[in-house]
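Recall the central idea of this unit: under ordinary conditions, the amino acid sequence of a chain determines the structure it adopts. In this exercise we apply that idea directly, starting from the sequence alone.
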Amino acid sequence: MQDILIVSGTRPEIIKLAPLYHALCSLVWARVRWLHTGQHEEMACQMLNCFAIRPDFVLQREGSTLREFSAGCRRQIDQVLQQHACSLVIVQGDTESAFVGALAAFYHGLPVAHVEAGLRTYNLARPFPEEGLRQMISRLARFHFPPTARSRLALQAEGIADDAIHVTGNTVVDAQHWACHRHGVQRRAAGRGHLLVTFHRRESWGDGVFDICSAIADLARQQPELKVLFPVHRNPVVREPVQDLLGGIGNIELCDPLDYVEMQQALADAWLLLTDSGGLQEEAPTFGVPVLVLRDETERPEAVQAGCALLIGPSYEAIVLHVNRLLADPHAHRRMAQVQSPFGDGQACRRIVAVLERQLAPAMPISLAA
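Accordingly, the structure predicted from this sequence is:
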């Protein structure tokens, strides 16, 4: 048996690793364990329950800063790796949990598999610290699973050997297929549907929050038939100005963060998505929902290149301009909505398992006829 440890701590990691976990658990040659770092606490627990995952190891979150969390997480993962034999550590994306998991595996001489490898902005400040963490994981990984051909090119340009790179598609699409089938997610909205809004990243704080909210407020007042659904992040840096600027506007619904299935339903019923989220940039095209990305850079340019997303930044003028343009031009909206998702076909986990099976599974004995 090959012992495989999956390390995750945040809501997006759980979403993208859950279908891979279930695929690996079905194998006869692998024993899979899930380690939860506690980086996202309440949201992560909801997500684990949604995907029917019970972690084998749950770490105690230490400290209130990212530095303190990182130090405590590294120490506890070291203890797990010392006490339990392991053949492979799997991490996903660009979180502190992913980087610390990869670094701990590296110091224990264990191969690292990096799911969703090769995404880049090449601007270490945006997103921070994710861009730097993702690049550092690429220096440590043995198996690189980029979701797209563009991500593969980035890894090749950084000198990573071709035989270590395996394009798979993004496991987020696998997760969507799993959840939609299990929970019956499908479009239920009559007519156009709502404008779905989310933002939470550090680069959106301060003036960005004010500009985004001011634009949404003016659009809602000018277009009273336009319904706006806004799940508001719990961080008070976001939550307080959002409540001040958008609370009380009749066609804007402010709500608590949605769980995964609720968010998939919100996407299925959406007309347009305004977001600074990386994961939602990947998820919206599955439902044919155009995306306006509230960032100046994105590590997921495939959606922009395909034509189902526009990178507009967080400015008031850009938001008002592009939302009004799509309201006035249904053909432009339809062109964006009809673009096939550039992030995969829902078979990413099958491809990852095939690679790991070739590399890790013990050779099956051959029975010779007498």
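The mean pLDDT is 93.
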